[in-house]
Amino acid sequence: MANLVLPDAVLVKNYLNGDESALSSLIERHQSKIYGFIYSKINDRDLSDDIFQDTFIKVIKTLKTKSYNEEGKFLPWVMRIAHNLVVDYFRKAKKMPFLRETEEFSIFNYMTDNSQTIENQMILDQVEVDLTRLLNELPDDQKEVILMRMYQDLSFKEIAELTGVSINTALGRMRYALLNLRKIIEKNQIILTN
Amino acid sequence: MAKLYSKKKLAFQNMLPKKDTISFLLNYSKALNVYKIGNVSVEFIAN
Fold first, then answer.
1. Distance CA A167, CA A147 (A)
2. Is the pTM of this model over 0.90?
3. How many residue contacts between A and B have a Cβ separation below 8 Å?
4. Range of the domain at A64
5. Of A80, A160, B2, B31, which residue is least crowded by CB atoms under 10 Å?
6. What residues of B are in contact with residue A23 (Cβ under 8 Å)?
């Protein structure tokens, strides 16, 4: 009861001398102002509670390490700590914005998973097998050009050099290979789609 | 429709932290012991 009329400086001194109830009095006396200040910036009860807690943890640590110089300015000192923590919060929030899901907004509307489903992967694998069979139906020179161009990603210049023909011949073989593949697909009514 | 100037501002509300927060702080203070060894401060939290 007597603590309510003691000035802050005396309460701080008592606290430093081991009187824990002095801290309780200080918090009770100033909590409204400090919390109100924090809330006016943050506008979130839970976050304001966190920052209020962090503020007084700093106050307690500073007092207990005897690093506080009593100059009759306890409240301005605590408010400065709270202010700095609010600034730190906004800096962090700016670097890593936290999006809360609402009814109108869901992060999964924007995050996509581009990997294939199991079904699509199985279809792809089957198409690959069918394509390999089709390529084996082609004449060797045409099959060679297709394999070098599509599977080894070689340029027509490189294909021409490696097979010992002109670029025009390599291009021609590619053209005939594709035409023949289409004919085989049509003739056998094969479907190669994913 | 209520006119805007009749709306109470947040500053008039008596904002207080949760009792759990205050309780935590007081318990934290009781449990915390700080010892200075030279230039180094060592903090102990007693269970």
1. 16
2. no
3. 55
4. 2-108
5. B2
6. 25-26, 29
